[in-house]
Amino acid sequence: MQNKAVPKPMKKTSGHDNRWGWFFTAPFGIIFIVFLVVPLIYAFYVSLFTYTQMRGTVFSGFANYARAFRDPIFLQGMGRVVVYTLVLVPVQLIFALLLALVLDAIKNKFASVSRLVIFLPYAVPVVIGALMWGFLYSKQMGPFTSIFALFGLPTPGFLTPNGIFGSLVNVVTWQWTGYYMVILYSALQSVPSELYESARIDGASEITIALRIKTPMISSSIVMVTIFSLIGTLQFYTEPMVLRNNAPSVIPPEYTPNMYAQALAFNYNQLNYSATVSFALGLIVVIFSIVFMRLTRNQSGLED
Amino acid sequence: MSENVAKTTNSGKRIHNGHRAPAIILLLVCMVYFLFPIWWLIVASTKSNAGLFSGSGGSMWFDKHFALWDNIRQLSTYEGGIYWQWLGNSFLYAVVGGLGATIVSVMAGYGFAKFRFVGRKMYFNIVLGSLMIPNTALVIPTFILMSQFGMTDTIWAVLLPSLLSPFGTYLMRVYCAGSLPDEMLEAARVDGAGELRTFFQVSLPIMTPAIATVFMLSVVGCWNNFFLPSVVLSNTKLFPITVGLTQWQVKSNMGSGAEQVWNLVTSGSLISVIPLVIVFLLLQRYWVGGITAGSVKG
Prior knowledge:
The structure holds 2 protein chains of 2 kinds.
Chain A: H1 7-47, E1 49-52, E2 56-59, H2 63-68, H3 72-106, H4 109-119, H5 126-137, H6 144-150, H7 164-189, H8 194-201, H9 206-217, H10 219-234, H11 238-244, H12 257-266, H13 271-295
Helix pairs in contact in A: 1-13, 3-7, 3-10, 4-7, 5-11, 8-9, 10-13, 12-13
Chain B: H1 2-12, H2 17-44, H3 49-54, H4 68-77, H5 82-114, H6 120-130, H7 139-148, H8 155-159, H9 166-179, H10 182-190, H11 195-224, H12 227-232, H13 241-254, H14 262-293
Helix pairs in contact in B: 4-14, 5-9, 5-11, 5-13, 9-11, 10-11, 11-14, 13-14
């Protein structure tokens, strides 16, 4: 594109490009600085201090970080979201990919209706989705007691210490799979059909075509979906926060790092340490994403 | 021509019947899974508080006593009809926040794609990098910062941070780079149009589908917003619907008798879901094309 421009106008546009480029990107830049850069720097700054009633606020260097990485509550919360991530990312990805491939292979009226239905939960706010599942999990108001009774089985304890992990995995899967499916499905629409028509004529089965031809063709979208769900799960907050109201004894207020940061700021009035937890969480998520991007460098759709 | 014929016959039997049955069964099962919570919500919103616990038709069917209208009436009076205020707030936050975020991202995406200005590379790489920063990690720091300026507990505390949309900017940049040829903008300039006129009259019309996508993603993002408003707001009159309904849920879980408003939580949830569902069904085609633009190398 660039070598098309003749040298003379290039020189002239340079100052012009500078002016207008900055003009168009300035509003974004200002918001970016005020609501992302400044809070990050401020959080880091605040995290370097400690407040005690005896001495007030004093500079304490990295002491808060040393505390965080020895703090069993923070480490447990972090461990929890890592386990959620390890389970949820593959579950959602495989489920969404399977649905996208099936819908792409069928492509009739029925398929387009199913596509809409599967996508519908995305239109439901996460809070409402979690509220609904909270009702459904309830022994008195939910349907599962009578459904399981039909088969003579006891109702599973959705909101018990053993059941809560699966229950939360289910809420997230219900909410987000359709969204990821739509991303993958529309990526499949841009795969040229000549690529697999010949394979089909050669007698390749639909399953082979789906796994060997279509899936590799949309790998950049798969990477993108994985990054979305990775980042989303590590900052797990809304769903456990809402279900906590139904099961306060099962989900402690420090269940995930984000919940812990909120509890520290509001229940324990430890703003400095709360900022430390937020900053540490952000840092860990960035590290996770970079590692993942490195591993999939050739496919990453977010590369420019 | 012959290719066309081949294609139609092919798509006529895309899948052998043997494969189709399992696929259809799978889709049916999934549809039940994705729909039944919504069905439950529809049924539940027609029940009274007592009906929710001991309805005659079980939890998946309507009670003898159809209480939807009573529930709506109660929504309008309970706590001075604050429910409608919450819904209005959510609309305000979603539309104003979504619109603002869209304008900012459209301008920035256009600027990044179409002007070779000094510092562009580094600037854009920083934006790309920021996609990885979890926005919830910014909530508490933003709150602490805002409280220094006395900005908490105002609508600005919710609206202003929602203008930040690195992903929208990224999508717009990819779209502009792919579908706005430099030659076309050059031609407009040669014709004597200024940059603003080129932007509004030549570029914007072409960017419409991507703008619609970014707008919708931003609106959904703002409508969903929960962590930030529940941290920065304490005045119940400013709550969005998400924070308000959770507050009623907490109240119902703890309180007894008149404090238990499960029927308001269910019917309130249903009503709040309807507008977005309708928008989605009407506009679904925009977003299928739009999000993928970001994942296809430009």
